[in-house]
Write the C-alpha cells for this entry.
Amino acid sequence: MEQQTLTFEPAEVAEIERLKSLYPHPKAALMPVLWMAQKKWGWLSEDVMRTVADVMELPYAHVLGVARFYTMYFKKPMGRYHIQVCTNVSCILRGGDKLFELLCEKLGIGNNERTPDGRFSIEEVECMGACGGAPMIAINEDYYENVTFDDVERILQSLPD
C-alpha cells in the first residue's frame, strides 16, 4: 500500500507543541493529538497515524496501540454524523436497546457501520455518564438525554445535509 503524504498546518503544529509542553513527558499529549488528527481527517487511517507518530516523534507502533485501545478513535471512515447510543444498564431499563435497534433499522445499518451516502454512522456504547438522564445518545459531540425515538427522528431531520 502506498503511503499518502499528510501534513499538519503550521498553526496545528504550534498547537501540538503547546499540548506537548503541558506534560512532563511530551508523549502524554498523544491522545489530544490523535483527537486533533481525527477531527482533521475524519478517522485514523494508517497514514494519519504515521503522520501523528512523526509529529510526536514516537514509534508508529505506540501510536497504533493507543488508537486501537480507545474506542473513541475511528479506525475506519464513519458518518458525518456519528450517533452513539448508550445501552448500559440505566439506558436499557429506559429503552436504550430498543432505541438502538430502531435507529439501526431506520438507517439500514448495523453497529459501527455507516450509511451508503456517508451521512450517518451508529455505534452502541457503554455508559456515557448520564444515568439519571437515560436513555442517552450523542451525535458527534452533542449529547441528548431522556430521548425517545420521536425525539431522535426530529434531531436527525434538523441536521444540515
Observations:
- The CA atoms of residues 96 and 161 lie 26 Å apart.
